[in-house]
Amino acid sequence: MGHRAQAGELRGRALTRPGTIPAQHNGRAACLEHAAPFHDRNIHADPADTLETGTREGTLPEETGRLRRILLALLLLGIVGLAAELVLLEHTESVWQWVPLAALAVGFAGAVQVLVRPTRRALRFFQAVMVAFVAVGVLGLYLHLRGNLEFERENDPAVRGLDLLWRAMHGATPALAPGALAQLGLLGLACAFRHPALTRRTPIKETR
């Protein structure tokens, strides 16, 4: 009877004592110390740890890979559409007018290369072409606006200031049309931003 009372007392202490879990071993009551701290640590886990775990398991790379492919598809569609529009407008009368067409052709090839085989070198070349897109777009804005300003001055030498600028913006040449090329360049740079291939020497395949 004395042994049974002692075992019961030990069980009661184990159940009421915080941070312990009772367990039976060889007919005696035992307490597993330090089990509760690990349990509490899992319960009160930091959300950042969960996010980090998701990254290691590949959840976030899968989502970013899908997003990059969508951006590349939009970029390719925009390049084809803008090139077709320039050809239909016969944007080939001077050397300067051939510049955006040449940039679009090189950009299309670079985007396809990134889509098929995203190596570090292909990504760097693609980024350089996208920066060229932005530069050519800004240059086109300047050339279009300057041409419209000169045309308006020839038609009405007395026009000045905001009135001249307003007429130039509504001129025969669409002043803001080259901005579409700059927009495509920014889209391409967003697609290549922190691409996994930029940190590796060998081509990779993103999770589909």
Task: Throw out a few tags for this protein.
208 residues, mainly alpha, two-stranded antiparallel sheet, 2 strands, elongated
Give an overview of the whole structure.
By secondary structure, the protein is mainly α. Helix 4 runs antiparallel to helix 5 (95-116) and helix 4 (59-88) packs antiparallel against helix 8 (179-192). The model is unreliable at 19-58 (pLDDT under 50). Helices cover 70% and strands 6% of the residues. The chain contains eight helices and two strands, in the order H-E-E-H-H-H-H-H-H-H.
Provide a brief overview of the structure.
This protein is mostly helical and 208 residues long. Helix content is 70%, strand content 6%. The protein has a two-stranded antiparallel ribbon with strand order 1-2.
Mean pLDDT: 78
Total beta strand runs: 2
Helicity level, as a percent range? over 70%
Q: Could you give a short account of the major beta sheet? A: 2 strands, antiparallel
How much of the polypeptide forms β-strand, as a percent range?
5-15%
Q: If you compute it from the alpha carbons, what radius of gyration comes out, rounded to the nearest whole angstrom?
A: 33 Å
| SSE class | mainly alpha
Instruction: Describe the strand arrangement of the main beta sheet, using strand numbers.
Output: 1-2
Shape: elongated
Task: List the total number of helices.
Answer: 8
Distance between the termini: 69 Å
Question: In sequence order, what are the helices and strands, one letter per element?
Answer: HEEHHHHHHH
Would you identify the regions where 5 or more consecutive residues have pLDDT less than 50? 19-58
